[in-house]
Design a protein that fits this description.
With 446 residues, this protein is α/β, with parallel strands linked by helices. It has one domain: Succinylarginine dihydrolase (L-arginine/glycine Amidinotransferase, Chain A), CATH 3.75.10. It is 35% helix and 18% strand. It contains 17 helices and 15 strands. It has a three-stranded mixed sheet, with helices on both faces. The chain has a three-stranded mixed sheet with strand order 3-4-5. A three-stranded mixed sheet has the order 6-7-8. Helix 4 packs across helix 5. Bound molecules: N~2~-(3-carboxypropanoyl)-L-arginine. N~2~-(3-carboxypropanoyl)-L-arginine (SUG) binds next to loops.
């Protein structure tokens, strides 16, 4: 008997130390807002409201807890010693960049947590997870051990879920991975997008910003997940896109079921990629792929990066049809608003647009799609998920209360030397593990 299959979005809950440190070269928003004041409470509430919106639209929605920050282990590993207060003070004096990296709430962008392949695509018919190593940036490279631990806690059942260790070459997870299929319940074509080949050491091709994802990493993940080669496509980002601030492919393309919305400038060889996707798609579907290409004549790459149009979430509604959940910035920009208005009128599955205010995340380069890890699950796989992380009215209300009680309204760069912020954060996370019934997942609890 056919089972119902769900796309479940697991959003990263914004952590209590959300701040702007300008840590991501090539991520224009992060670079522009570095050293400005952040608003952690508002950031977390914005993220929660987005989750609630999807829940209210009838989708299944999950929550991934924030990581422990500051990462004092990383600071100790860099030669700082003494009490927590000593470590923070010394690091601020000697290496403020490292200090900021250890406070970053960047695990909120769950699209970078892992790459996930649903059981319909894998050789052993289990759901496969590979935690991303995020090796390209120091503040993100400290995430994988906790990410892997949290994913195992949320998806514990080995009869349904397989967890792979991070691969060797630079990997940024699902932000560079899209799955196309006729419907979530059937097999799909998996598209892996990379910015460089790890074996290519020449840096001249990217004089401005670094490419993050290595082709070798994408290939390793596809191999580990047991994907069929004829239903797997590897595509290179165009260097122009990276230069324009497309540090992950999900800044310039988004897919859902048979729809691929992308900018003409996304890929090095756009027509080649589309050809390969169509060929793969024909193996899994009896309908055609529905690509929606936006050309520079309608929107320049720079405008796409500024508005994050392509970082919208494209979701299938339970009643049928798709909705595009776009950042409010897209509603305020005339061009993107017109594109979206037309998109819902045109002949394609997208029927509605919802705008979400996640400005606190956007100022660090994280749009709606960055905040979520998509996991396609059958009914019986969903039953094996750690249920307390799945959003309900009660959990939402509990999380809102928790944020309101535990988070600061504002954080300035100087606050990163404040040992009481570290204590407050640990107390908040300790509480959270009770709410999500996750047990002692944090190092400070072990
Ligand atoms: O890795 N920003 C994140 C944004 C990640 C967005 N994710 C996706 N596109 N899927 C990054 O660049 C900024 C941190 C700072 O500057 O304080 C940051 O890490």
């Amino acid at each position: 008997m056919d089972q119902t299959v769900y796309e479940v979005n697991f959003d990263g809950l914004v952590g209590p130390t959300h701040n702007y440190a300008g840590l991501s070269a090539g991520n224009l928003a992060s670079m522009a807002h570095g050293q400005t004041v952040s608003h952690p409470k508002e950031a977390a509430l914005q993220g929660l409201r987005k989750m609630k919106l999807l829940h209210d639209m009838g989708l299944k929605q999950g929550v991934i807890p924030p990581q422990e920050r500051p990462d004092l282990e990383a600071l100790r590993g860099s030669g700082f010693g003494g009490s927590d207060a000593d470590i923070l003070k010394e690091a601020q004096k000697k290496d403020p960049h490292l200090l900021a990296a250890c406070w970053s709430a960047s695990s909120m962008w769950a699209a970078n947590a892992a790459t996930v392949s649903p059981s319909a695509d894998t050789a052993d018919a289990k759901v496969h997870f590979t935690a991303a190593n995020l090796r390209s940036l120091p503040h993100r490279a400290i995430e994988p051990p906790a990410t892997a631990r949290f994913l195992r806690a949320i998806f514990p059942d080995e009869s349904a879920f397989v967890h792979h260790p991070p691969v060797h070459d630079p990997d940024e997870g699902a932000a560079n991975h899209t799955r196309l299929c006729q419907s979530h319940s059937g097999p799909g074509v998996e598209l892996f997008v990379y910015g460089k080949e790890a074996s290519d050491s020449s840096r001249t091709e990217y004089p401005r910003y670094p490419a993050r994802q290595a082709k070798e990493a994408s290939a390793a993940v596809a191999r580990a997940h047991g994907l069929a080669p004829e239903r797997t496509v590897f595509a290179r980002q165009s260097p122009e896109a990276i230069h324009a601030g497309v540090f992950h492919n999900d800044v310039i393309a988004v897919g859902n079921e048979n729809v691929l919305l992308y900018h003409e400038g996304a890929f090095g060889d756009g027509s080649g990629v589309l050809g390969a996707l169509k060929e793969g798609f024909a193996r899994v579907a009896d309908t055609d792929l529905a690509p929606i290409r936006i050309d520079p004549g309608r929107l320049f790459l720079a405008e796409a990066v500024e508005t994050y149009l392509f970082n919208s979430q494209l979701i299938t509604l339970p009643e049928g049809g798709m909705c595009i959940v776009a950042p409010s910035e897209c509603g305020e920009n005339e061009k993107t608003r017109a594109i979206l208005d037309e998109m819902v009128q045109e002949e394609n599955p997208i029927q509605s647009v919802r705008y979400v205010d996640i400005r606190q995340s956007m100022k660090n380069g994280g749009g709606p799609a960055c905040l979520r890890l998509r996991v396609v699950l059958t009914e019986s796989e969903l039953e094996k998920v750690h249920t307390p992380v799945l959003l309900t009215e009660t959990l939402y209300a509990g999380l809102v209360r928790w944020v309101e009680r535990r988070y600061r309204d504002r954080l300035a760069p100087g606050d990163l030397a404040d040992p009481s912020l570290a204590e407050e954060s640990r107390a908040a996370l300790d509480d959270l593990t009770q709410i999500l019934k996750l047990g002692p997942i944090y190092r400070f609890q072990q």
